[in-house]
Structures are given as C-alpha cells and as structure tokens.
Design goal:
The protein has about 190 residues and is mainly beta. Helix content is about 10%, strand content about 55%. The longest helix has 9 residues, at about 160-170.
C-alpha cells in the first residue's frame, strides 16, 4: 500500500484488510526509531521522493527463561530510497539499504508446550524525514503475528465431535487446558436457544 508522509511516498505499509483478523497465537506491536545514513560513495540528498520498505524474517529462536519462553526474531529491513541529488542538476538517485531487524516477545509459563509455527511481520506505519544531506530519520510501527503450533496435543476426536474441530482450530490450545471430557461439554448455542 502507498501512503504519503512528510511529502514522501512510502510503499510497503500493510493495508488494513491484510492484517490478521483472528488470533491463533500471539499479536505483538512495537515501534523502532532509527537513523539511515547515506554512504559517502553516494551523492548527498536534497529531498526524498519515495521509499519502499519491507521486512523479512530470517530466523526464530527460543530461549527457555524462568518465567516462560522468550522468542527472538531476527531478520532484515530492506529499503529502496529514491531521492534528488543535492546540487544544481537535481538528478534522481536510488539507494538500496539493508538493516538488521531484531525483536523479541515472551510466551507465558502456562503455555510452555506451545511452539511457534510461523511469524509474519506487518508494517503498520512508517515516517521518514531528511534531517541532513546524509541523514534520514525513520520511525516504523510493526505488528508481529506469531502462530502457535501445538505438536504435543494428543486429542482424538471421533465422528460425533467433528463440529468441535473448527472451534478448536480457531483458539490457541494446549494439552493441559483441553481434554476429551472438556470437549464433550461444548454446547451448540443456537440449539440451546431455538
């Protein structure tokens, strides 16, 4: 999606209709402030036309901490910056910059049997400002959608409980919270009131 902030066209911000609409794990929001430096081998900037931004997750690590698990996310922020050269000719220049992306979040102790299946990073907002001819201020807001995987769950559903499969797939579950006895206690709300 394209947005305009501070007279700069920004491409790469996630549209609202692409954001997760159900939670099957954990949602984490955070922001970062950073300074992007235009290298000496590139011309100085007079103004910025457009910035394309993307985040790629490269690795996910889990650390067993005393209060639960700490999930470390490592990746890369990729920027393509189109700017005008400082001087009389105002020639357009393109700069590609890759910057490390690192963050973490915690999974509480009551969910220790749950693993992380997938993490997707969404860019909610981005703001850039040319501070000097070689320095760009950047503020970005991110949303991490961490999908839980429950490999350690041993629930056998037979045919009469098929309607519960969809319910169980929509919520984050772990083997300590749901047993076959508790599944039998799920009721059909529509049937109760009709």
């Amino acid at each position: 999606m394209e947005i305009v902030r501070n007279f700069i066209n920004i491409i790469g911000v996630s549209p609202e209709d692409e954001l997760p609409n159900k939670i099957n794990g954990q949602i984490v929001q955070h922001s970062e402030i950073e300074t992007i430096i235009i290298p000496d081998n590139k011309p100085e900037a007079k103004s910025i036309y457009e910035i394309m931004v993307d985040v790629k997750v490269k690795s996910i690590r889990t650390i067993n901490a005393p209060l639960g698990k700490t999930i470390l996310v490592d990746g890369e922020k990729q920027y393509k910056i189109i700017y005008t050269e400082n001087g009389d000719c105002e020639k357009a220049n393109i700069l590609y910059i890759n910057i490390p992306y690192n963050t973490f979040f915690e999974v509480s102790k009551d969910k220790v049997d749950i693993g992380i299946n997938n993490i997707k990073v969404y860019i909610l907002d981005a703001y850039f400002d040319l501070i000097s001819s070689r320095t760009i201020y950047c503020h970005s807001v991110y949303l991490l959608d961490a999908k839980y995987s429950c490999e350690n769950i041993n629930i056998e559903l037979n045919e009469e409980f098929d309607y519960n499969k969809e319910i169980l797939s929509e919520i984050s579950i772990c083997k300590d919270k749901y047993s076959k006895d508790k599944i039998n206690k799920l009721i059909d709300i529509d049937a109760e009131y009709l």
